[in-house]
Amino acid sequence: MKVIFAGTPEFAAVALQSLHEAGFDIPLVLTQPDRPAGRGMQLQPSAVKQYAVSKGIEVLQPLSLRMDSKDPQRAEEAKAAHQRLLSTPYDVMVVAAYGLILPRSTLDIKPCLNIHGSLLPRWRGAAPIHRAIEAGDTETGITIMEMEEGLDTGPMLLIERVAIEDSDTTGSLHDKLAALGGKMIVEALNKMKAGQLPATVQPEEGVNYASKISKEEAALDFTQSAAEISRKIRAFNPFPGAYGTVNEVHIKLWGAEVLDGGNAPAGTVLSADAQHGIVVACGTGALRLTQLQKPGGKRLPAAEFIKGFPLEGLRFS
């Protein structure tokens, strides 16, 4: 079975590696153009491109696949990419976190299967892992679906569940789901090859959307409950990193434990010492902050952080 793969970040690279190691013929990989990254803002290839190049797989990086784009360069690149797809013999396209919209012209060439990091129809959209943790979901999973023009609306082919632990961050849950997605897409293609991959239409009940994460969301509101704030800290780890502000300094918060009590104005630092740790009052309950980071510094355990940044008597806003 010949598979064209489209994806960009590490989540997708894990799936590409799984397909390659399972012996699927991958004649072409689509990924987004190299982007500036790091302190020097040098152009960096995506995780998918890095893996594909290491295995000698041809890589195509169009700015868009929409041939009707009003941007002449994007339209031209889309036309070239479309012709490349038409001229490449393949049986199925696998898509995972590609980041570009696949137009009808692409979807009509061959079946397109998507690896989506949620239990559809819950959390359609760009940030299903973040939003599941933020909302307090107790489980999530991977859905292998057949793509259509709607946003994650296509028929479901395989689905597996994963518990969301109280300790899970977006980073840790991402890794679990990436590994599961890689395993499941190999299973799906093997079943497809054997004609044993029935499709199930998504139910209309339970649809919601996982909007893209913005950096503005990283600012914490301590008038919310300790449980809500704790979930946001976990959901925004590693990106964009939740923070509270003390004396106009943004302090990133990477870990916290929910406590009862906290009878003080929201944001008040109730303790900041080696015995009790850093405890902050919230709208309901309190948080014991376990890992913090000041601008330009490293992530530090609370006991180490307060040695260089005393917090007692201060207030987060």
Automatic annotation (TrEMBL):
According to its UniProt record, this protein's enzyme class is transferase
Against InterPro entries, the record matches this protein to: Fmt, Formyl_trans_C, Formyl_transf_N, Formyl_transf_N_sf, Formyl_transferase-like_C_sf, GART_AS, Met-tRNA-FMT_C, Met-tRNA-FMT_N
Q: Per its UniProt record, what Gene3D superfamilies does this chain match?
A: 3.40.50.12230
Listed A to Z, the keywords are: Protein biosynthesis, Transferase
GO MF entries: methionyl-tRNA formyltransferase activity
Chemical reaction(s) catalysed: L-methionyl-tRNA(fMet) + (6R)-10-formyltetrahydrofolate = N-formyl-L-methionyl-tRNA(fMet) + (6S)-5,6,7,8-tetrahydrofolate + H(+)
* Residues covered by the Formyl transferase N-terminal domain: 1-189
Q: Where does (6S)-5,6,7,8-tetrahydrofolate bind?
A: 118-121
Q: What is its EC number?
A: 2.1.2.9
PROSITE patterns associated with the record? GART
Q: What HAMAP family has UniProt attached to this entry?
A: Formyl_trans
Q: What's the family? A: Belongs to the Fmt family.
- Protein name, UniProt field: Methionyl-tRNA formyltransferase
- Species of origin reads Duganella rivi
Q: What is the lineage of its organism?
A: Bacteria, Pseudomonadati, Pseudomonadota, Betaproteobacteria, Burkholderiales
